[in-house]
Amino acid sequence: METVNALGRRKEAVARVYVNEGAGKIVINGRDIETYFPSSILRYIVCQPLNKLGVAEKYDIKVTLDGGGFKGQAEALRLAIARALVKINQAEGFMTRDAREVERKKPGQPKARKHFQFSKR
Question: Which CATH fold topology does 4-88 show?
């Protein structure tokens, strides 16, 4: 099997994955997944498409992650892995990008939606 690559995005995070046949090793920016994502919840999010298809020990995955925070990076990586698996064989779920973005802060307000308390007198 040749290398299959795919791209996943979430908020500001961008994940590029390269999938080869192997022993199930996931390397993110030169580091192992356990050191890059110490939280078991984030590792679970990343491995969801692999576990759904039952191929967690079948493919080696090399990842380049950029931008965003931990949660956004994990979800971008999940989408990229799912897209790569679809190129190999059909996966279900996880295939649409979550297009929600952070709303900008408005001038004269403390946050995007929060307003200062109104005082009549």
Answer: Ribosomal Protein S5; domain 2 (3.30.230)
Domain boundaries defined on the chain: 4-88
Residue from 3, 7, 34 nearest 19 by CA = 3
Model confidence, pTM: 0.80
Chain-centre distance for alpha carbon 7: 10
Ordered alpha helix ranges (H), the chain: 33-36, 40-53, 70-88
pLDDT digits (tens, 9 = 90+) for 110-119: 999 999 998 9
Give the integer Cα–Cα distance in Å for 20 and 9.
21
Helices 40-53 and 70-88, axial angle in degrees (round to 10) = 10
- Are the C-beta atoms of residues 71 and 42 closer than 8 Å to each other? yes
**Digit-coded pLDDT (tens) for 69-84:** 999 999 999 999 999 9
Place of tokens 């971008």: 76
